[in-house]
Structures are given as C-alpha cells and as structure tokens.
Design goal:
With 429 residues, the chain is mainly beta. The protein is built from 1 helix and 36 strands. A 5-stranded mixed sheet has the order 2-8-7-4-5, with no helix packed on it. The longest helix has 17 residues. The protein is elongated, with a radius of gyration of 31 Å.
C-alpha cells in the first residue's frame, strides 16, 4: 500500500512539473510611426514603425488600415517573427481613389499565441480630388456605332466602334466602365476604360422591333435596362443580372430612373395607347404601385420623399409637368405650362429643370410653380448638364455647343460626322 501511494505521488509530481503554466503577459507594442492624427492621402505611402517585446516568442504581427466601422481598407501587412523582440519598419501602400475623406485607424496587433495586444493610431485621410477625364459621344454611321472621346479642351478623337446600332451610352466612373447599349442589333457592352477591352457583354437578338428599350446607370452603379418583350434587368459590374422583373402584360419600358428604393419606369402599351408610371422595388424588381399618365414622359425626378416630378408631352405636343404622390399613388397637376413640345430635359438642382422646347431653352421651377427663359433661339434635341464643371452641353443633330452655364457664354462648338445619339461624362472616380 505504501509503495502504491509513493508511486502516485511521484506520478503527480511529474505531471505538475511537466505541465506548462499559462502565460499572462501580453506583448508590448511601442509605436513610433505614424503619429496620432497624421494626415494621409487616398494614394499614399505611409511609414509604419514600431517595436514589439514579450516574455514569449511573438507568433503573429498584423498591420491594417480601418475605417470607423472597423472595416479594413487596403492590404494588410502580416509578419511571423518567432522571436521575443521584433522591430517593425515597413511601408504601407495605399492606392484607393474611392476612399472618402475622414477619420481612419491603423490597427496594429501582436500575438504570442495566448495573448494579443492591439494598438490603434488615428489618421486623417484626404480623399483624391475628383476631376473629369473627358466626354464620350456616341453616334450611328448607318452600319455600326461609333464612340468618340472629347477632352476637357473640347478636342475630339475617335475611341471605339461597336457592331450594331445605338440606344445610348452611360459611363460608370466608379468602376471605370463605358456601357454601350444597342437598339435592334448588336450587344450591350461594358468596356473597361483602363484597358479599352470588353469587361462584359449581353447580346441582343436581331429584330425589326427594338430589343433594348431603355438603359440607365443607377446611383448603385448598376445598369438598368428594359426589353421590348416587357422584361427588365439590373446588371452589376460583372454583367450578372441582380434583378429580373416584368413590366405590365403587353407593356414595355421606355424612360426610367432609380430614385431611392424604387426603380421608376415609364411603361408604354403595345400597341401604343396607354402610358403608366410604375414603381418597382429596386432590390427585387417587384412592383410597388402604378398610375396611368397617358402622356409621353421625358424626365422622371425626385422632388421630395413623397413626390416625384414627371416632365411630359401631351397628345397635342405641348410640354407639361405632373406630380406623382407616393402616399396616394395619384397624379396631380398643381400648375400648367405654356411651352412647346419638350425635346429633352435635365435637372439643374432639386425642383429646377431646364427643357429644350420649341426654339428655346426654358426653366421649369416646380418649387415656386414658374417658368423662365434661359436661352432664346436655340434648337436642341439633347441636353446634358455637368454640375462638376458647371457646363451645359446642347446637341442639335450633329452639332454640339458647350456653354458656361452661369454666364451662358459659348465655350466651344463641335460638329460631329453624323447625328449625335448620346453623350456622357467620364470622371476619375
């Protein structure tokens, strides 16, 4: 019995002497660079310098830049020293022109396998300045579509040819893609503006009737397009359809806009006879509500959380304005216009619109229910307003006139080889 007790004591002693005591000492981090509240830029090289010391070997060190939501931006730096002391001295490369100005944090962590220490260093980021790269102009030469690029000195060069005709173009500056949509033949093609190669494409089925009937680029950076057979889709930056929806039976989409949570569409009946304004949930494509308009819609705009503005042409080809009230789903006409047929329209600011009508460019103010002449004797079938440069682009057939919006002074006049179908602005972000 004594021999058994002695053996147990010996085994117990061996067990406790061989077991590892839990380490309670975390690594110590001493940061030299960057300094707290240091200024950095969206495209920058930041020196990261600190010392790590511990009573045990340091297994892992990681350096990340994070926003105030603790979401990492840029690439993390990871080291595995396996030593008790380590001097970190590396360059952190940041190259993201889309980062917004604000407060960010360098998250510096060190672990010995049991304990982890984190140090946070606040930095203030200055975003990369936005600038315009140029203006894309699309046209149809009778056999295929041509796209030209105009620089900021208004000098134009040939950019690319697309098989088929052209419905319109849109520049996705966020993802640096030019989207070209056909009408009856060809494809909807996204061109990578960094490489001038095709990023994605969706072919159309050649037909005597339109295939694509409307195309816009939403604020969510998705391409929304309608089909003559009543379908509509939203394509992401890879060309995958994120929503698949249907217009009313025997209707197709013409004008559209992405306003808040809604994909808002003008739906024309087949044969033509009825026009509806229809709201679909943007996330799913499911219809929310609709109203009969029976006027040709030229522009759809957000006026308030409860109101949308519809700029339309009546059956007698005179310009009109309608208010669409979301709370009731009804159309209202709080004031009338005395203008000619609206050829095109642009939003200058909330509630203020510029329309091409007759031989004039005219303001419509839906806040104080007034109209005002902007320019007299100007023919236009296409208007584009660049609020960034404060320039108004006015197209009449193949002629493009660029105005300084505030002074109304002509900055340049350009004659295109054929009639201009569409134009859009390209920015660096």
């Amino acid at each position: 019995m004594k021999r058994l007790i002695f053996s147990f004591i010996v085994l117990a002693a061996c067990f406790f002497s061989c077991s590892k005591e839990k380490d309670g000492t975390p690594p110590k981090i001493t940061v030299t660079n960057p300094l707290n509240s240091q200024q950095i830029n969206g495209v920058d090289t930041i020196q990261i310098e600190f010392e790590v010391a511990d009573n045990m070997n340091i297994e892992n060190i990681q350096v990340s830049l994070k926003n105030t939501n603790d979401i990492g931006v840029g690439q993390s730096i990871v080291k595995r020293p396996d030593t008790k002391k380590y001097s970190f001295n590396e360059l952190f490369y940041l190259n993201d022109i889309l980062l917004e100005s604000g407060v960010y944090y360098f998250d510096i962590s060190a672990s010995d396998g049991e304990n982890t220490t984190r140090k946070y260093v606040q930095v203030n980021l200055n975003e990369v300045a936005k600038y315009r790269e140029g203006i894309f102009i699309s046209s149809y030469n009778g056999a295929s579509s041509d796209v030209y690029l105009m620089d900021n000195s208004f000098q134009t060069s040939y950019y690319k040819n697309y098989v088929g005709d052209v419905l319109g173009i849109a520049v996705n500056s966020y993802h640096q893609q030019l989207i070209h949509s056909c009408y009856t033949s060809g494809s909807m093609i996204a061109t990578d503006l960094m490489t001038n190669t095709t990023a994605w494409s969706v072919s159309a089925q050649s037909s005597s009737t339109p295939y694509y009937t409307g195309m816009i680029l939403g604020q969510d950076h998705k391409v929304y397009t309608g089909y003559y057979d009543g379908r509509f889709k939203a394509f992401n930056t890879s060309g995958s359809a994120s929503i698949n929806g249907l217009a009313n039976q025997s209707f197709y989409i013409e004008k559209s806009a992405l306003l808040g949570d809604y994909y808002v569409t003008e739906q024309q009946s087949i044969p033509v006879g009825q026009v509806n304004i229809v709201l679909n949930w943007a996330v799913s494509g499911v219809q929310f509500q609709q109203a009969i308009v029976n006027e040709d819609i030229k522009g759809i705009y957000q006026h308030s959380n409860n109101e949308m503005i519809l700029l339309t042409n009546t059956a007698s080809n005179t310009g009109n304005v309608a208010f669409y009230y979301l709370s009731t789903g009804l159309i209202g006409h709080p004031f009338s216009l005395s203008i000619g047929k609206i050829e095109d329209c642009v939003e200058i600011s909330s509630g203020l619109y510029l329309v091409a009508e007759g031989n004039n460019l005219t303001y419509i103010n839906t806040t104080n229910f007034t109209t005002l002449t902007y320019l007299v004797g100007v023919n236009a079938n296409l208007l584009r307003f660049d609020s960034f440069s404060n320039e108004l682009f006015v197209v009449d057939g193949n002629q493009l006139t660029i105005y300084d919006y505030s002074s109304k002074a002509v900055k340049s006049i350009y004659s295109h080889p054929t009639a201009i179908v569409d134009l859009d602005f390209w920015y660096n972000k």
